[in-house]
Amino acid sequence: MESDWLDVRAKLADLFLKAALRTGAFDKSFDPELRVAEPRFGDFQVNGVLGFAKKQKQNPRKLGEVLLASALEDPELDTRCTLELSGPGFINIHLKAEFLFQWLRRFVGRCELNTLSGKTVVIDYSSPNTAKEMHVGHLRSMIIGESIQRLLRFAGAKVIRDNHLGDWGTQFGILIMAVKRAHLDITRLGSDALETFERLYREGVALTQQDGQALEQARQELVKLQQGDPENLAIWQKINEASYRSFDEIYRQMGVAFDYVLGESFYRDRVDRIYTELQAVGLAEENEGALVIFHREHERFKDQPFLIRKSDGASNYATTDLAAVLYRVEEFHADEIIYVTDGRQQDHFQQLFLSVEKWFQKQHRPVPVLKHVWFGTVLGEDGRAIKTRSGDPVKLRQLMEEAIHWAYAMVDEKNSELAESEKQEIARAVGLSAIKYADLSQNRTNDYVFSWQKMLAPEGNTAPYLLYAVARLNALFRKLGVAPKQPSIGAITTSEERALACQIIAFPSVVRQAIDDLRPHYLCTYLYNLASEFSSFYNANRILGEADTVRNTRLLLCQFTRYVLKTGLSLLGIETIEKM
Ligand code: ARG
């Protein structure tokens, strides 16, 4: 089978479009709208005839007949599917059993896409601010970003992971002031350094709110830092080192890694060029001492300018982001840049993207594709942003420990006879996966409620359920003692085999859809359905004690299911475990 059949949905869409164009009754605006069908109608369905007929003021049923006749003449379709016209103009597609079997044989272990080959994508994610421990507000960018970068790589893109740390912001003015006032000896900091800095920062903020002099000092400390004052730079350096140590520990546990960690400070010598270029092309203008960009054609931004240099001459978040776009285009040759942040930054990114588009167009440079992948808030069970009892955001470190703790209790109850070390290993994998999966299985633009009970449930659309499905397959292959050989003959016969096979062949199409929309939850829903379909198959169809051809086909289905579950979970940043 040719490799272009990997994504069956896309291939069918392509063939139906061609069949339609051959009739002369359709034009290029026709979208076959090829969708996975409800099982009682078939495996796929062409839904687009109705909409097209309506636009053209034609009879949909007649047009459907014309399309069906043309499709039936295509040997590529005719050998693989049976087609029928249904209702007012739908075409139902049933894949032939022989095609299903050959497809499974051809693609088992080989489902990587190539839709993004040759593309360089920079992905900017996690990107916390230094001087503070990571808290629950930093969870989603890390988890969603990690999954998206894995998906893009799976589709063949060259991916550059860049952690754009907030290490140059106003927090340092306040913090340096507080460090100096407390006479903190930065040469003798212990492992709790970051906690000390966090406490000093809180005190500093309180002070600047009451005391005008402290506020002024904080401002000056920031200016001094930005001008390269050695004492302030040394304090800044210590704060960052303590932050890196704490971030790295979280990344290590969560299986997240970056190619570059170019924080905001990296761009400090690259901002002057931004001011010059943006003024030269007439995009930036002086406004009350500051440098700003107005997007006058825009509803809101016409009087809400994009501030790129403050009136005291300091650069800001926007300047750094403009410099980072330039750097990523010039140094990394980025075709596309993806930013993964909270939904509250939508205005910032819209203004950034508009500014970059105009700036690059005026300079006749190719404009990179810029995408803001934003997400909603993590809520507590009371439906409000999740907080500790004292009102602070929950620290990520504590959240992770708690997850492992709950998962341990679960493993211990289910499998108390396992060795202690094994229990701990499973608890770690299950606990951390549960946090990731609970996040990824939600449409990212929604808020979601963080609930231990839900995310650790052994049944349902959860990490434990999927990890268990993989462990069950592992146990099956352990019991058989051999990896299945590629069967040369076999057949899909029972209804459970057929349902499972159809579910499996949808994998590449689903991954493609998750990549097109940058929404990993499509993949989660799919994996959950696949695991359920597998369960029904496994309960109804014996493997051992059947004739060779039957056994081989079923083993192929098991092997492919395991491959898809493992691959799919790894695309979510979740490593599977052998036993559970
Ligand atoms: N440090 C920012 C924050 O914590 C996120 C940075 C996102 N990336 C970017 N290039 N602006 O909100």
Strand fraction: 5-15%
Task: Give the CA-CA distance, first to last residue.
Answer: 37 Å
Query: How many strands appear in the DSSP assignment?
Result: 13
The hetero molecules present are: arginine
**Rg estimate, integer Å:** 28 Å
Order of strands, main sheet, comes to: 1-2-4-3
CATH architecture of the largest domain: 3-Layer(aba) Sandwich
CATH class of the largest domain: Alpha Beta
Structural class: alpha/beta
Could you walk me through the main structural features you see in this protein, from its secondary elements to its overall organization?
By secondary structure, the protein is an alpha/beta fold. The protein has 4 domains: 3-95, Arginyl tRNA synthetase N-terminal domain (Gyrase A, domain 2, 2-Layer Sandwich); 120-166 and 264-375, HUPs (Rossmann fold); 170-254, no CATH class; 431-571, Isoleucyl-tRNA Synthetase, Domain 1 (Orthogonal Bundle). The protein has 21 helices and 13 strands. The protein has helices at residues 8-23, 48-56, 60-72, 75-78, 97-107, 139-154, 171-181, 193-210, 212-226, 230-254, 272-280, 317-330, 346-362, 396-414, 420-440, 452-455, 463-480, 495-505, 507-517, 521-540, 548-571, and strands at residues 34-36, 44-46, 81-86, 90-95, 120-124, 158-162, 284-287, 290-293, 306-309, 336-342, 369-375, 378-379, 448-449. It has a 4-stranded antiparallel sheet. It has a 4-stranded parallel sheet with strand order 6-5-10-11, sandwiched between helices. It has a 3-stranded antiparallel sheet with strand order 7-8-9. Helix 1 packs across helix 3, helix 2 packs across helix 3 (60-72) and helix 18 runs antiparallel to helix 20. It is globular. The mean pLDDT is 95. The structure holds arginine. Arginine (ARG) binds at residues 124, 127-129, 164, 166, 321, 324, 339, 341.
